[in-house]
């Protein structure tokens, strides 16, 4: 199926390019699925599991993303307000420093 692109106008060319890119993405996804199936079949045929070969890397990434850090500093005026020492300093922390307190005074 040959397309004579010289006879296409700007909109038709954009439409053709868009359709070609969509089809290219579909073919890539299909190829990835087939390759994944081959890999899993090969691993299973050898008597191993995916985790035996590649470890638990997927689980470790998802667990690490949701962890919380223990607080290092507490607001003396409101003990429920804490800060882990990571990220932007909270307003109460900056206000306490301006009032003459030191970081070690706010430490838990």
TrEMBL record:
It is found in: Cytoplasm, Nucleoid. Pfam families: Histone_HNS (PF00816). GO terms for molecular function: bent DNA binding; DNA-binding transcription repressor activity; minor groove of adenine-thymine-rich DNA binding; transcription cis-regulatory region binding. Transmembrane segments: none annotated. It comes from Dyella solisilvae. Belongs to the histone-like protein H-NS family. GO terms for cellular component: cytosol; nucleoid; protein-DNA complex. This is H-NS histone family protein. The keyword Calcium does not apply. Residues 64-91 are annotated as: Disordered. Keywords: Cytoplasm, DNA-binding. SUPFAM superfamilies: H-NS histone-like proteins. Residues 61-108 form the DNA-binding protein H-NS-like C-terminal domain. The keyword Transmembrane does not apply.
């Amino acid at each position: 199926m040959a397309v004579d692109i010289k006879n296409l106008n700007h909109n038709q060319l954009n439409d053709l390019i868009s359709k070609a890119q969509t089809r290219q993405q579909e073919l890539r996804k299909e190829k990835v699925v087939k390759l994944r199936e081959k890999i899993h079949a090969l691993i299973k045929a050898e008597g191993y599991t995916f985790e035996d070969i590649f470890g638990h890397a997927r689980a470790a990434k998802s667990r690490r993303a949701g962890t919380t850090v223990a607080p290092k500093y507490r607001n003396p005026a409101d003990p429920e307000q804490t800060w882990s020492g990571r990220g932007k300093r909270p307003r109460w922390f900056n206000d306490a420093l301006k009032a003459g307190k030191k970081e070690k005074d706010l430490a838990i």
